[in-house]
Design brief:
123 residues; mainly alpha; 2 domains; 6 helices
Length: 123
């Protein structure tokens, strides 16, 4: 498969050099960066780390307007033998994970808006 992919990419490169010769001679570095950026956007991200169910549940509950106390009791198991410090640490970690998930979603949304604006670039 790699040999076929390598051959195919060489053909795509030759095709790009031929079709966009004027843009390439104008600014070769910018043209290459633009072509690589479009290729990365077309391929998309990898599968990544699977989301934790507790964090997903906490994000949904917070979106519904539930308080953190309700979220903690629903998402975390509170055993009899668990110390107060361990419980507090688990609560802080859950809150941090929810904050991280929300900011990642926000960042991806903004990047997607920016990348769609860049698709209207001259080349």
């Amino acid at each position: 498969m790699m040999l076929n992919l390598c051959t195919y990419m060489k053909k795509v490169g030759a095709d790009l050099r031929q079709k966009f010769a004027a843009e390439r001679t104008e600014d070769p570095r910018a043209f290459k960066e633009c072509a690589v950026r479009y290729l990365r956007l077309a391929l998309g991200p990898g599968p990544g780390r699977p989301p934790k169910k507790t964090v997903t549940q906490a994000v949904k509950m917070r979106a519904e307007g539930k308080t953190w106390c309700e979220v903690y009791s629903a998402c975390l198991s509170h055993s009899e033998g668990i110390s107060a410090d361990t419980w507090t640490l688990a609560c802080l970690r859950l809150r941090s994970a929810v904050r991280s998930r929300r900011s990642t979603e926000r960042r991806r949304r903004i990047f997607k808006q920016i990348s769609t604006k860049r698709e209207t670039a001259p080349y």
